Each structure stands twice: as C-alpha cells, then as structure tokens.
Amino acid sequence: KKPETLPNKSQGLSFVRIHAPWHVLSREAELLKIKMPTKKMYEVKEEGGILKKLNEIWCKLTEPLQPQVPQKDNTKMKSLSYPFSREKIYFGAYLLTIFFFFFFFPSPLGISSLIANNVYDAAYPLHDLLYREWARYGVFYKFQPIGLIRKYFGEKIGLYFAWLGLYTEFLIPSSVVGVIVFLYGCITIESDIPSKEMCDQHNAFTMCPLCDKLCDYWNLSSACATARASHLFDNPATVFFSIFMALWATMFLEQWKRLQMRLNYFWDLTGLEEEEEHPRPEYETKLLQKKLKIKNTTTENTNEDEKEKLTWRDRMPGYLANFSLILFMIMLTFSAVFGVIVYRITTAAALSFSTNETTRSNVRVTVTATAVIINLVVILILDEIYGAVAKWLTEIEVPKTEKTFEERLILKAFLLKFVNSYAPIFYVAFFKGRFVGRPGHYVYVFDGYRMEECAPGGCLMELCIQLSIIMLGKQLIQNNLFEIGIPKLKKLFRKLKDERTEPKEINTNQSKDPQQWYLDYSLEPFTGLTPEYMEMIIQFGFVTLFVASFPLAPLFALLNNIIEVRLDAKKFVTELRRPDTVRAKDIGIWYNILSGIGKLSVIINAFVISVTSDFIPRLMYQYAYSQNGTMHGFINHTLSYFNVSHLKPGTQPENSPFARDVLFCRFKDYREPPWSPNPYEFSKQYWAVLSARLAFVILFQNLVMFLSVLVDWMIPDIPKDISEQIKKEKSVLVDFFLKEEHEKLKLIESFITHDKHRHQSGTKGQRIRAASFCQFSRSQRGSLASFSSQHTEV
Q: Helices 146-153 and 236-266, interaxial angle, to 10°?
C-alpha cells in the first residue's frame, strides 16, 4: 500500500499480506541465478567397501536418535539443478525463496527500505511448524533435522545449526579425554612426592610473612590442601591434553569444511556466486544528504566520483569515534581488572586483622572466590554495554552493504568481548606473582600494600578456579537465563504497550480469534545470528585457550550445548519472528575467527604449561639436579633463604610468638642464599629453568603447528564422493541439455516435413525460428562452459 493509504496507529494494527506474481518471481530468480531442480533425476553413488559397511552400522545404531520428520522416498536420487531461466520449461515450479530475496532486499523498492522509512512497522513470514521434533527439550538426544531447518529458515540459519551440531558432537571425545586426564590427577595424587613433602609437618619450612607487620611467619605444611588440589590439574597428563586439544581444534575446522561442502552440494549452492549487494537504506540516506549539501555549496572543482559514494573523508569522524571509543573501552576493562586486584590486596590485608583463627586461615580462599564473582558480574555487565556500543560504532561508520556492516560489527563486538572475558584470566595466568619482588625489596601497589603473590602450590589452581567460575557463570546466566528471560520480558512489554495504544474494540476482536500474523507480531524481531555465534565463539575460547589449566572445560561446554541447541531452536520457533531466508555458502568471518583462536590456543597453552605450572621446574629437577633421579627434595630446591635481620625497619612481624627463634625464612624463588658472595641474586638454576621454559614454548609450538598442518593436509576439504558427484552432475547436465536441444530440432524437422505447403509459404519464418533455436543452443553451450569451469575449479 502507499503510505498515504495506510491506517493511522490510532486505528490499531493493520496487516498487509504481500503477494508476488509469477513473472516477478521468475524474473528475480533469473537475475539472482537461483539454482532450481529440473525434471532430470540421477543416482547419488555412495562410497563402497568398508566405509559403506561402517556407515550402514552407524545408521542402524543412531536410528533412535534420528528426528521423526518427513523424508524423501528415495534419498539415493537427486534432481539435476541449474540456474533458473524463463526460457526453459523443464524447471520445477517452486519459487518461494525468491519472494524473500526480492521483497526483503534493502533496495529502494524493497520492504527493508520501507521499514527504515517508517512506512511499515515490521515484515515477516509466518510460523507454522518445526516444534515437535526440534524445539523441545525432550528431544535433546536426537539429531537436528538440518534439511528441514534449511527449508524453513534458509541456508544461513541452517548452516549455523549445522555448525552448532557438529561442534557439540566434537565436544564428546574431548570431554571423555578431559575426564580421563582429571581422573589421572585424582589417582596419582597420593603418589605425588612434592605434595607429600609440602604436607609433611616434619619438614620445617618456615616461610616469610605474606604481609608487613600484621602477618607472622608460617609453616609451608599449612598450604597442604592447595598443593594437593593443584596436582589435579598440574600433572604430566595436561601436556598431552593440550596437544590433543590443539589437534582437536584443527580436526574440527577441517571436518566443518567437509560438512559445509557436503551441504552446499545437497542444497544446490556449489555454483553460488556472490552478487553485488544493494546499498543499505542508511547509506543511501547519508549519500543523499551529501549530494544535497554539495548541490547547495557546489564548486566547479568537485569530483563527480566523490558525489556518487561516501569517501574516507566523509567517514573520518566515524573512524575517529571508533578508534577512540574502542581504546577507551579496552582501558575500561583493564581498569576493572586493576580494581579487582586492589580489592584482593586490601581485603586480604583487612582479613589478616581478624581475631578469628578460621578467618585468618582461609584468607586466600575467601579473597579468591569473592574476587572471581566480582569479575563475573563486571564481565556480564560490560558484555551487554559492549554489544550496544559495537552496534552504534558500526552504524556511525555507515557501511555500504549489509555484509560489510555485519563483518565490521562482528569484529568490533568480538574484540571488546574477547578482552572483557579473558583479561582477568590472562592476569592470573601470566602476571600475578611475577612482579612481587623478594623479602626486603617487595613491590608495593600503594603504601603498605604489596603486589599479591601466588599460592605456595602455584597460580595454576587459582587460574582453574577463575576459568571455571567465569565460564560456568557466563553459560548459566548469560547464555541461558538471559536468552530465556529477556525475550519474554520484551514480549510482555510490547504486549502491554500495544494494549494501551490500540482501541479496545480491535483488541477484543483479536483476543477472541487471533490470527497467526497477529500472534507473530507480538514476538521479538530477529536481529541476526551475531549473538548466537558470539557466545559459542567465546565458549570455544574457554575450551581451547586455557585448557591446560582446566581439563573439564570441554565437559561443561558439552553439557551447556546440549541445552543450548534446543534453547536456540525454541527461541527461533516460539520467541522470535520468523526471519526472511538468506542464501549463504559458509559461516563467513566466523570461520576465520575460529581458526585464529585455534592457532592462538597453541601459543597460550605452551606458556601456561611452561610459565604458570611447575611442569618445567619439576622436569629440570628430576633430570638435572636430583641426586637419585626422583622428585625427593624438589620443594627444598625451589625455596630460597632469607636472613630475617635484613627485613626493612617497620616491616617485621609484630607480636610474633617465635620471632626470636627464626633466623632464616624461606620464599619461593631461585636466588642465591644470604651467605653467598652475591646474596639474593638470581641463581644459576633460575637461568637454567628460564631457558628450559623458553625452549619448551618453541618446541611445543612448532610440534603442535606441524601436527596441525599435517592433519590439515591429510584431510581433504572436499569429500571424495562429493567431488565425484559434482563432476558427474556436470556431465549429466551437459547431456541433458544436448538431448533437449536434439528433441527440439527433431520436432522442427518433423513439423517441416509434415506440412510442405506451409513450409513453402512460410520459409522465411521457419528459417528464422530454426536460426533462433541454433542461436539459443550456442548460447546455452556457452553457459554450460561457464558452469563446467566453476565446478572444475571446485
């Protein structure tokens, strides 16, 4: 309808059903080169031999897990597909997808532009199925009906759920291996010699005070529980698990490329080319404003090309705003992390004043747990702010197309949320306890408050606590509660708003017999797949980046994703308006982000093992310094001596009951003893261990990278059967069109022979028609040659 004919809002909601006639659908299908099925069918050959038998066994075993949805009668037969042409009569007759491409395209005549200009309030197709076998929690154990999802929502959303399903399936083996590694730590905890030495009260390791004045000397055996817990995650099996997870990430990405290619083949996307997108309405509005401004202040030197597009000069204010605000947001994240550090230091000092012995003995546990919870709350709040800020920053950039807009939005949101989610974890893993100093020369944050140290068993246990609470908290609160609660609250708010603005008569009529379009209007509008991908990508980072410190991360991710698949399905079917279908061959920039995280995980895990854990110091002691090749004496080897008389005045423990009996205290570091010529300098052992740490990082990184490249090389991107089927389809297509042309020519010849009189009287007309068929045949062969070259390249 024209804008002036639309009803006013005071008259209530008005719905318009849009219909596209056949000639419009066929024209748009031809322009978009949408591949449509022909009448020709051919057999899809399956792999033979042992692979076929294994596939049959697998199908029988997983039969109870298959969704009960309509299936094709003969799945071994496939329709031959070819880009639609109005001149060909042998195509199938369904063109529903074209409707959405034409009317939702952000062109000046499309619905998107009319919505942007407030002509229409919303436009959406109607919901009608897919709940029983997909969007219920009761079918969590079943596979997803990916083909039906694709037909219902389009290829772009179908690829997302296919990717999510494959990722969830791949988490099963990594979860099993992670549980085995954790159980190995539980089983070997009683035989771990360093833990026994630390827990042995007969070993009189008198440690230096943890703070000035208020803290007393303490015995290392009081940290027995922390040392035993650290062994659960700090053992030789974690090195193997880190290598396994790096290869797992590579295999997952390779398998996804293969599945993506298989889906492209069965969904007739193999020949899909990226078409030039229409500009976004916001871009066209900005460009129109620029043209009007130039027209009012035009000069003869104005470049004509600059009038037709937005240049970098036009976007410079947006670029400056993006750079400055993103930098500010990153600094805000670092400030939040620093604020939590100050909280930990001051709270630990305050609890040390307590007269309660239990409170003083549990200072480290209390401070760690409360600080992690504060970190989680800050991360959740900043995540929501950063999402809105990233969208606003992308809008002021004024990208030309929807694809460019989406990619820039994804990069900004990912950068901000990545820094926000992992900054506290990076601090604990690589910075905490590294710049403390030594007794007598401590580093202070501010007057009287030292930089915080790691626990006697190392920072790995605290890193595990930090990672687990943040990961589980984000999954439980942000990924589940927010996804369920926020759409329902928005739906309720919109309903209450509509009830206030609509006339009572219309509201009463709709409540008695609500139509589907009215029900769908009350649902939340679909805003894209970026939030769905983002939460899974951040989870993928938790699973891979610091997996050396938390082997159970894949298990918790698996349990979350089993719910997440059905939660997303239910949200798409019952909480969101049905989105318009969008064709896509891949998941876009998300694959590059996944690949980058996989490569970064190799480097991070190498540093976690070599720097954060005690794996390298233990290895060096056993094979370089131990007299009998065992771990006996390792704790004494890692502790340095300090003469308590060298403490600065005013920092000695006050009211210490046994300060007079202590001549030397111990602290964890590799330094020369006070009686050596160079007291408190780094010892030879320190430099040897540091060299071994760096050597391990280089060796680990190169070994894992080599194995990843080897796996990538061994697994082809395109499955062999799909590659052969593409070649076969090309051959069958050529034969099919040649046969059609031959039949047409035979029809012309028979027609000419049958009626010589009409042939003689209309020789000229017949020749023209025959020539047109010959010309059509040549042009068709040209299009087939183009089709052939595309598939040969694939």
A: 60
Integer CA distances (angstroms), 535 to 392, 540, 557, 593, in order: 20, 9, 11, 13
Q: What residue type is assigned to position 465 of the chain?
A: I
Q: Which pLDDT belongs to residue 356?
A: 74
According to DSSP, residue 661 is labeled: T
And the tokens for 197? 């030495």
Cβ neighbour number for residue 155 with a 10 Å cutoff? 24
Residue type, position 116, single letter:
A
Q: Which two tokens stand for residue 384?
A: 């929501």
Angle among Cα 479, 485, 488 to the nearest 5 degrees reads 135
Contact 683, 670 (CB under 8 A): yes
DSSP label at 251?
Answer: H
CB atoms within 10 A of CB 462: 25
Nearest to residue 463, comparing CAs of 424, 411, 420? 424
Query: Which stretch of DSSP H or E encloses residue 37?
Result: strand 35-43
d(CA 34, CA 351): 69
Listed residue (778, 610, 635) closest to 701, CA to CA = 610
Distance CA(261)–CA(454), nearest Å, equals: 49
Q: Are 643 and 674 in contact (CB under 8 A)?
A: yes
pLDDT (tens digit, 9 = 90+) per residue, 324-376?
999 999 999 999 999 998 898 888 878 877 777 777 777 778 888 889 899 99
For residues 133 and 139, is the Cβ–Cβ distance under 8 A? yes
User: Considering only CA atoms, which of 423, 429, 435, 422 is closest in space to residue 461?
Assistant: 429
What's the pLDDT tens digit per position in 587-645? 989 999 999 999 999 999 999 999 888 889 999 999 999 888 888 889 999 999 999 88
Best CA proximity match to 174, nearest among 483, 709, 601, 705: 601
> Does residue 58 sit in helix, strand or coil?
helix
CB 275, CB 398: distance < 8 Å: no
Half-sphere exposure for 298 (CA within 13 Å, toward CB):
10
Distance, CA of 771 to chain centre: 57
Q: Where are the beta strands (DSSP E) in 608-745?
A: 639-643, 664-668
Cα–Cα distance measured from residue 198 to residue 219, given in angstroms and rounded to the nearest whole number: 10
Helix, strand, coil percentages, rounded to 5, for the chain: 65, 5, 30
pLDDT in tens, 231-242: 888 888 988 999
- CA angle centred on 341, ends 338 and 343, rounded to 5°: 115
Residues 323, 378, 362, CA angle at the centre, nearest 5°? 140
Distance, in Å, from the CA atom of 544 to the CA atom of 600, rounded to the nearest integer, reads 9
Compute the radius of gyration of the chain from its Cα atoms. 34
Angle at 524 between CA 501 and CA 139, to 5 degrees: 140
What do you get for the CA distance between the two ends of the chain, in Å? 45
Strands (E), 191-297: 206-207, 218-219
Q: How far is 697 from 699, CA to CA, in rounded Å?
A: 6
- How far, in Å, are 55, 272, 714 from residue 49 at the CA level? 10, 33, 20
Which residue, among 29, 139, 17, has the nearest Cα to 567 in the 3D structure?
139
Q: At what angle do helices 482-501 and 553-570 cross, to 10 degrees?
A: 20
From 154-168, 531-545, 649-663, the region with the lowest mean pLDDT: 649-663
Q: Is 633 left (phi over 0), alpha (psi -120 to 50) or beta?
A: left
Which residues on neighbouring strands pair with residue 576, listed in sequence order?
524
Tallying the residues shown for the chain, one arrives at 794
Q: What whole-number distance in Å separates Cα of residue 463 and Cα of residue 553?
A: 13
Q: Evaluate whether 653 touches 216 at the Cβ level (below 8 Å).
A: yes
The structure tokens listed for 200 are 């042995």
Q: Is the CB of residue 452 less than 8 Å from the CB of residue 341?
A: yes
What residues have CB less than 8 Å from 20, skipping those under 6 apart?
98, 99, 102, 103
Let me know: does 637 contact 578? Beta carbons within 8 Å: no
